[in-house]
Design goal:
Layout (H helix, E strand, L loop, with lengths): L11 E3 L2 E3 L1 E3 L5 E4 L4 H7 L11 E2 L1 H9 L18 H13 L3
Antiparallel strand pairs: 1-2, 3-4, 4-5
């Protein structure tokens, strides 16, 4: 699935690593793991819930962390923003089609 990164959704941080705000298909803001995916894969030995680069809700990412050895070290504050997934996706598709 495409990652729709948008300034409409707040970027969060995991320690010193940014988790850019992204728009979920349900028009809620989430956070993207694309910038830190390889780091998450390297530090989480078992279980490894971070199997894909994804745009997820903060709650889902926190749930994934609770399943790891780092459960107490990484709890990200909730994200309450909203976005317009269909509009962002349409604008992104139009920019791709025009070669921008």
């Amino acid at each position: 699935m495409d990652q729709l990164i948008t300034p409409d959704c707040e970027t969060r941080a995991l320690l010193a690593f940014p988790l850019p705000g992204c728009c979920l298909p349900n028009d809620r803001c989430g956070i993207s793991t694309y910038q830190i995916h390889s780091i998450l894969q390297a530090v989480v030995i078992f279980p490894a819930p971070f199997t894909e680069v994804e745009c997820v809700s903060v709650e889902e990412l926190n749930t994934q962390f609770r399943a790891t050895l780092f459960a107490g070290a990484a709890q990200i504050p909730p994200s309450n923003g909203s976005c317009n997934y269909a509009d962002l996706n349409m604008r992104l598709s139009a920019a791709d089609d025009s070669g921008q």
